[in-house]
């Protein structure tokens, strides 16, 4: 692979990192001391590749022993999804007793203290959203600061929130196969859900005008090699990220992340048929993280491998 190509790719990624940081504001990966006080023995995982900073969303899996569970205040919003079948617990502030069941949701906003006393061992999935990420979504939806303020909520049997949380963990455990756009979409959807709990009006203008949709499609086509994100495409369409996530599939028949993956697969197939580049080079040229990532999606969408399509063997 030409050295100039590699240098150009690295330089482009550095520019994208700076852009992402500016858009999302100062992120915070959490107070690890607070997690240790909770007895965390699980895995902390940023929902991005190691070469990228947190994009506003972080997952933490907890496996806790019986006793006091203390969530020290941090700058992130925490959505805690209980995973154990049934855990007898009591509120540390009021003494209220209850049974937390799988799928129950607790929300601990930025700067707030959370936790409870558990009678038995328990497991939970914690989804953290940086305050800057939620504030950006609220700003895009024209929600004022007062109405965008989140408040603590406990034992919320909220199916949409639970489904979103499970989608995050499934994507992580699947090796982030759906890519950055999918993670962005999940993060925006969860932020919108939290804002709706706060009483904020989150409905936006209906539909996506044809000219704006075409601008997005043209931009995607011209930037398949780039690591596209939802905020970037929303800016091209001159709508909010939440609006684009909601209405893109209505007009195209598929979510924006799946559309981008399909176009990458189709472009990769064209390049492989030409036989001018090795499969590893084709993968980078169309925006896949690596050759295995491209092969996985080709098998899923086309039912064939890059080796079967190309005229020359793929690089090992």
Based on the model shown, name its key terms.
single chain; 316 residues; alpha+beta; Jelly Rolls; 46% helix; disordered C terminus
Task: Write a brief structural summary.
The chain has 316 residues and is of the alpha+beta class.
Question: Can you tell me about this structure?
Answer:
The protein is α+β, with helices and mostly antiparallel strands. It is 46% helix and 18% strand. The protein has helices spanning 3-24, 32-37, 131-140, 159-173, 180-197, 210-222, 230-237, 241-252, 256-274, 279-285, 291-301, 306-309, and strands at residues 44-46, 57-64, 67-71, 76-82, 86-91, 97-101, 105-108, 114-118, 122-130, 153-156. The strands form two sheets. A six-stranded antiparallel beta sheet has the order 1-2-9-4-7-10. Strands 3-8-5-6 form a four-stranded antiparallel beta sheet. A hairpin with a 5-residue loop joins strand 5 and strand 6. Helix 3 packs across helix 5, helix 4 packs antiparallel against helix 5 (180-197) and helix 7 packs across helix 8. It is globular. The chain starts with a helix and ends in a 7-residue tail after the last helix.
